[in-house]
């Protein structure tokens, strides 16, 4: 039912936002007309994110875990997001370990987690910046870190960011990290905000190495 | 000679949007409001690529994909749907790409450029 509702909402949103983008591209919104078109495009994007995250949060289905190459999924996610990052003047640096074991991952859920983390990073860097993604094996886990060069998360708010509907941004839905946390739970893993005083925010995803792989 | 793209989509407003955007990108655009019409146009109009919605009345896009590939094994097909449930399956359906419907058509445009160099 939730996915049917999403379908019914997303299609008209795509039409409204799609035509607004075309009008803006064609110069219909020059001068004073530009701001309303920008607002339509921005608000439609916000609604699309909200719909996506409400669906992700409402879903209680267990992940469909299949053996997957984490680095390959990361490359795929950033290839899909290339246009978004280019427009936001955000550079991406991938530092992916070559010796990672195969992990049990629900592909579409992981792409959702990476989308949510990157959307937050882009919002945190309105004048551009760098997203650095690092994968490493750490004992019986694999750690995937997504770090940005934005202002970071104030220490007083660090425990709140994974709560549903909590957002530090007027553009955020407050569900992205809650969805990411729920998805990581479903993978038998976890998501953490890296402690420490580094500049920017760094979120770490930990995936368990499957037993058959860790014993090999 | 512009490349010819067939869009199969049951929502008329989306068809209008895709027709407008892809024509502006320099493609010749064929529109089909359901899977049966799409199959007819694959047979008769020789498209270079198909953009295929999944949830359509009558024959759905999944069934249509196999029929399209029966007619033209080499024809690139891009699944384009709002339903997230299908994403994990598209590779097994032999489609060339999966692009989630969005107001931002840049991913769809880049996918088309990649498949129709």
Q: How are the SSEs ordered, and which strands pair?
A:
The complex is a heterodimer of chains A (216) and B (117).
Chain A: H1 2-25, H2 34-58, E1 66-68, H3 70-80, H4 82-87, E2 90-96, E3 103-105, H5 107-124, E4 129-138, E5 141-148, H6 176-186, E6 190-193, E7 202-208, H7 211-215
Parallel strand pairs in A: 2-4
Antiparallel strand pairs in A: 1-3, 4-5, 5-7, 6-7
Chain B: E1 4-8, H1 12-24, E2 28-32, H2 35-45, E3 49-52, H3 61-71, E4 77-81, E5 97-100, H4 106-115
Helix pairs in contact in B: 2-3
CATH topology of the largest domain in chain A: Heat Shock Protein 90
Q: Let me know the largest β-sheet of chain B.
A: 5 strands, parallel
State the separation between the terminal residues of chain A, measured CA to CA: 42 Å
Describe the biggest sheet of chain A?
A: 5 strands, mixed
Query: What is the arithmetic mean of pLDDT of chain B?
Result: 89
Number of helices of chain A: 7
Work out the number of β strands of chain B. Answer: 5
CATH topology call of the domain at 1-75 in chain B:
Rossmann fold
Number of discrete domains of chain A: 2
Strand content of chain A: 15-25%
Q: Name the poorly predicted regions of chain B.
A: none
By CATH, the architecture of the domain at 1-75 in chain B is named 3-Layer(aba) Sandwich
Count of DSSP-assigned helices of chain B: 4
Oligomer: heterodimer
- Structural category of chain B is alpha/beta
């Amino acid at each position: 039912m939730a996915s049917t509702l999403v379908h019914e909402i997303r299609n008209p949103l795509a039409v409204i936002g799609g035509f607004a983008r075309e009008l803006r591209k064609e110069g219909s919104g020059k001068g004073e007309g530009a701001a309303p078109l920008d607002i339509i495009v921005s608000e439609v994007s916000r609604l699309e994110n909200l719909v996506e995250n409400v669906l992700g949060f409402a879903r209680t289905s267990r992940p469909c875990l299949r053996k997957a190459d984490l680095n390959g999924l990361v490359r795929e996610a950033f290839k899909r997001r290339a246009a978004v990052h280019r427009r936001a003047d955000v550079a991406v640096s991938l530092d992916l370990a070559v010796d990672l074991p195969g992990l049990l991952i629900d592909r579409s859920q992981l792409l959702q987690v990476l989308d949510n983390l990157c959307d937050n990073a882009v919002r945190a860097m309105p004048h551009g910046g760098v997203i650095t993604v690092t994968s490493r094996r750490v004992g019986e886990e694999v750690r995937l870190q997504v770090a940005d060069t934005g202002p970071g998360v104030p220490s007083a708010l660090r425990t709140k960011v994974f709560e549903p509907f909590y957002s530090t941004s007027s553009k955020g839905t407050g569900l992205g990290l809650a969805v990411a946390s729920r998805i990581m739970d479903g993978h038998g893993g976890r998501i953490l905000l890296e402690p420490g005083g580094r500049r920017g925010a760094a979120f770490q995803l930990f995936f368990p190495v499957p037993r058959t792989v860790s014993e090999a | 000679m512009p490349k010819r793209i067939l869009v199969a989509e049951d929502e008329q407003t989306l068809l209008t949007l895709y027709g407008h955007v892809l024509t502006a990108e320099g493609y010749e655009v064929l529109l089909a409001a359901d899977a049966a019409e799409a199959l007819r146009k694959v047979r008769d109009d020789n498209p270079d690529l198909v953009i295929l919605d999944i949830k359509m009345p009558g024959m759905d896009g999944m069934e249509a994909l196999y029929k399209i590939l029966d007619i033209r094994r080499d024809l690139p097909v891009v699944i384009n749907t709002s339903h997230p449930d299908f994403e994990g399956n598209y590779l097994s359906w032999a489609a060339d790409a999966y692009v989630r419907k969005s107001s931002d058509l840049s991913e769809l445009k880049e996918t088309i450029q990649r498949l129709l160099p």
